[in-house]
Amino acid sequence: MIHFSKFSLFIIVGLLFLGCSKNKKINKDKKPNILFLLADDLGYGELGCYGQEIIQTPELDKLAKQGLRFTDFYAGNAVCSPSRAVLMTGKSSSFNTIRGNSGSFSDDQWIRVALKKDEMTIGEMLKQAGYQTGFIGKWHLDNPNDISTWAYNRGFDYAVQEQWGSRFGGTQYDEQLHWINGKQDSVYYHMDEWECKDDFRTNLAFGYLDKIEKDKPFFLFMSYRAPHGHEREIGNQELYKDQDWPAKERLHAAKITLLDKQIGRMLKKLEEMGELENTLILFTSDNGPHHEGHDHEFFDSNGVLRGFKRDVYEGGIRVPLIAYWKGKIAANVTSDYVAGFQDVMPTLAKVAGIELPEQTNGISILPVFLGEKQAAHESLNWEFQLDGWGRKMPDGGFRQSARIGKWKGVRYGITNKTQLYNLEKDISETNDLALEFPEIVQKMNVLFEENRTDTPGFPYGGVVQDYKPNQRYKANQK
Predict the structure, then answer these.
(1) Left (φ > 0), alpha (ψ -120 to 50) or beta: where does 4 sit?
(2) What are the backbone dihedrals phi and psi of residue 261, each rounded to the nearest 5 degrees, phi first?
(3) Is 17 within a domain?
(4) pLDDT of 438-470, one tens digit each?
(5) Which residues form the Sulfatase N-terminal domain (predicted)?
(6) Structurally, how many domains does the chain consist of?
(7) Do residues 259 and 403 both lie within one domain?
(8) Closest by alpha carbon to 447, among 94, 96, 87, 97?
(9) Separation of alpha carbons 303 and 7, rounded Å
(10) Which of these, 3, 54, 60, 114, has the minimum number of CB atoms within 10 Å of its CB?
């Protein structure tokens, strides 16, 4: 048996105290971690905390109660690629390089457009600030045949992404294959082994978190799969099986509930690591609800909003935003501050304590997170180009909208009249007030025509065309 004198015991306790104090100092001085959670095609009305009454989302509902819920937050655009481009660069849609899922470079050729190399991404910004950076999931901001445009080469130390290539020509990438750090490693998703793809990807994220350096902050971007229509099958066949719904609606609801479950797992993992208290967590969606393989009205996926994915009405671009940061963000707070994806880069720059890249035209909403006042945007502006794959586009597939305070302007096709709505009284955009307020309509038109830049592949006014059955996507070989 070992015996300690009182003096020895005093020395040991003192050393332990100093060790604990030192550890506390390290944790206190470390920059905050950032966890960004992005759903794919999740509608404004598909979470319980945003009014959903059927689909169960207990983890996100709890997170909203513990943090801040935004009512007037907007995606970067109405579909994934241009929306994610706004998020990654802090450049709003009418100034962004990418304004549709693919651009037009000839009458019968639509090409996926990658972010430019001189456009800084959030990953590159935070990596330069000393963050360990991870990305897992859907990137969709690349040329499929040019690995230098993939997430791993755009600021992320660790990047897992599936690669969609078959629709665009070139190499035929398998959607079940996930590429790790470019081509260094790869791993397949086998549906029968997992509840869903997000279950599989969450485990990959855990593997990444287990290997990070504890004394350095991390930025982890989880680009989830759910509830995108391309995930046509999942491993979990038990959820909602007792409901007398069409099979496609049971699948849709299950994908959302399983997404919610993975987020719960992620939060528990951070807690077990001792990192939850020092982590800013943001959850949102890349655009409004889809209606691909299910009826978006079955669960009121867009709530009371008009439109859905590919619309620049509120239903296509207004999305949830939940912000949680223990001890920093007050619990159970709702904000009607008007913000959007272009504000994420400035906000994270402030969180990291670094200078904001000049390219962004967003503003930091960190003051809103902290319960402080922040100047409002003078306006928000969206410019969206439908691609020509399988579509007739007599108006060029060109859609614009803008918000100035309570006013919302919408124009589909530059030769058509601009619609005007008062969102304070008419959030569903049912009563067009354009004839009553021509001066406000004129302000909207000025925004549409002047608050923008030109970019290759997305001509102003769009691309008028008829669908050609032999039309094909082709990968950008440049």
Answers:
(1) beta
(2) -65, -40
(3) no
(4) 999 999 999 999 999 999 999 999 999 876 544
(5) 32-354
(6) 2
(7) no
(8) 94
(9) 68
(10) 3
